[in-house]
Amino acid sequence: MAGGHADTISGLKGADQGMKSEHQQGFSEAELLRGWLSSRDVPCPVCGYSLRSIQSATCPECGARLDVRVGSTDLRIGLWLAGVISLSLAMGFVGLLTILFIVPFLAAGLGLSIGLPVVAISTIITVSYMLVLLRLIRNRKKFWSKPRKAQKASVVLYILASSAPVSIPLAIWFMAWLL
Question: Is the pTM of this model over 0.85?
Answer without folding.
Answer: no
